[in-house]
Amino acid sequence: MKLIETLNWRYATKKFDSKKKIDSKSLELLKEAIRLSVSSYGLQLYKVLIIEDPKTKELLRAASWNQSQITDASHLFVFCSYKQNFTEGVDSYISLLQEAAEESNHSGILAYGKSIKENISSMEDLERKFWSEKQVYLAMNNLLIAAAELRLDACPMEGFEPEKYDRILGLGDQGLHAVLVAPVGYRAEDDSAQFRKKVRRSTKELFEMI
C-alpha cells in the first residue's frame, strides 16, 4: 500500500528551503484535494487562503511566534471557519445538490436543507463554533496527505495568534476566523527533524477489536 509508505515519509517540517517553490500544477492538485475533503453534511463551511506574497507572510510570521516556516515555505495555507452566514452556506449547498440531481422532484433535497438549518440553529454559539472548526481539521488532513503524495513538505500549525491573523487578512469583514495554518514547500537539507524516528503508539495500544 503506497499510502503507508507516503505517511511514513512525511513529517512536520521545521525548516523549509526558501529557494524552492511549488509549481502551478502541484498547487492545483493540492487545491483539488482540499476541495474533495469530507465535511459534515458535505457543506464545506470554510475557506482556505493561500498566501504567497512575501510581505503578507512577514506580517503573519510576527503573529506566529516568529516561526520561520511561515516565511520560508513556498506557500502558506490558512484554513478559516465561518462565524456567521450558515444559512446562506446551506442554501448554496442545496442549490448545488439540486443542479446535480437527475430527478425533477427536488422536495427531498429541500427538506434535507431545512433539516440541516434546524440542526445548526439548535446549537449553542460555542457548540456551533467548535463544530465549524472541526470541519477545518478534516480539510487540512487532505492537504497533508496530498502534499506527501506529491513529495511536498508541510507543517500543520496551531501555534499562531488567530485574532491577529483575522486582522491582517481582513477576515472579520468576511465573517471568517483563522483556525489552522499549514506552510507547504520543500524541506531544507539541514532540517534535523527529518532524521528523527517516527514515533507513534503501537497498534496494540491504539486499537481494540470488539
UniProtKB/TrEMBL annotation:
GO terms for molecular function: oxidoreductase activity. Pfam families: Nitroreductase. Signal peptide: none annotated. It comes from the Bacteria. Residues 8-186 form the Nitroreductase domain. Its cofactor is FMN. The keyword RNA-binding does not apply. CDD domains: NfsB-like. Keywords: Flavoprotein, FMN, NADP, Oxidoreductase. InterPro entries: NfsB-like, Nitroreductase, Nitroreductase-like. This is NAD(P)H-dependent oxidoreductase. It comes from Algoriphagus formosus.
